[in-house]
Specification:
Helix content is 77%, strand content 0%. By secondary structure, the chain is an all-alpha fold. The protein has one domain.
């Protein structure tokens, strides 16, 4: 336990520093505006909510730096190298797989909720070139989102996950790390982020659903980071997840008829439908991580025997 004590200390300090901004500023802004800012229809309040969310995405990165300074750990193993050599496939996969997840989620939304819509209403072919260009433009604009996404990834995958793995091993660290990441979103969820506030068991169901999604996503993001020893592929995936979600893509490719019906579906239901595609990637990533872990342990044993 003694050799784990420094890691546990760093985990605790990191989590306190990462959680503090959202836990303090979200309820303060809710109180200042007199409403849940992430569920507000007021453009000024919505702008304040967006600004808070974007700024607080840097909190894990700042927590990474401060924890290293406070504990005098230093800045080795920062995961800040690009490491392109031999890893280009992971950079590509970080974007392509997330986009594939989102399109599959759209297909499920159509099958489950949009009974009166045809395939051509969901994947509308009218002005197809314009719609495709809009998706590409949205992907280009996502570069703006990359920096806040990097702020989270350098904290969660670049600092917390390696520490958790040293304390509890890889399988448990994926689950615990995902739950920590999900709970970090709790102040936002309580304020109406992602799910709104008009659903049964608010906000507990929203928090639980966020934790589930974060555990599943954590497996893929950890795989990307572990394989490349870099946080940038995970940051790209996080960027696409936030700025080219199934919600956003649906708004670009669907017909007006489909959009009207889509707007009548609660956000909590849509997020439930997004779980299967994320689960497929997450479970596959978890299996690959376990195989990779076993192979490394086997190699280490052979090296010691020699």
């Amino acid at each position: 336990m003694k050799n784990k004590a420094p890691q546990i200390k760093r985990i605790v300090i990191f989590c306190i520093l990462a959680f503090l901004p959202l836990c303090v500023f979200t309820p303060l802004l809710d109180f200042a505006y007199g409403e849940k800012i992430f569920a507000s229809d007021d453009p000024k309040v919505a702008a304040a909510a967006y600004s808070l969310g974007a700024l607080c995405m840097f909190a894990p990165a700042v927590a990474n730096i401060l924890t290293r300074l406070i504990t005098k750990e230093g800045f080795s193993q920062t995961y800040l190298g690009l490491n392109f050599s031999g890893n280009v496939k992971y950079y590509i996969a970080s974007v392509v797989i997330k986009l594939a997840e989102n399109f599959f989620s759209i297909f499920l939304i159509w099958q489950l909720f949009l009974e009166n819509c045809r395939f051509s209403d969901i994947f509308c072919t009218d002005n197809a070139d314009k719609r495709a260009a809009t998706i590409l433009l949205q992907l280009g604009v996502s570069v703006i989102i990359f920096f806040p996404a990097f702020g989270e990834e350098w904290g969660w995958r670049g600092y917390l996950m390696p520490k958790l793995e040293k304390v509890m091993g890889r399988p448990a660290s994926i689950i615990v790390g995902g739950i920590i990441w999900g709970l970090w979103h709790a102040p936002l969820t309580i304020s109406g982020h992602n799910f709104g506030t008009d659903y049964k068991f608010y906000p507990y169901l929203g928090i639980a659903l966020m934790c589930l999604m974060c555990v599943l996503m954590n497996a893929f993001l950890t795989l990307l980071t572990d394989k490349t020893k870099s946080v940038y592929p995970a940051s790209l995936c996080h960027m696409v997840n936030n700025n080219l979600s199934a919600f956003v893509i649906f708004g670009i490719i669907a017909s007006e008829k489909a959009l009207i019906q889509f707007s009548q579906i609660s956000a909590i239901k849509i997020f439930w439908v997004c779980i299967p595609s994320i689960a497929i990637t997450g479970i596959a990533s978890f299996i690959l991580l376990m195989k990779y872990n076993v192979r490394n342990e086997h190699n280490q044993i052979e090296h010691k025997e020699k």
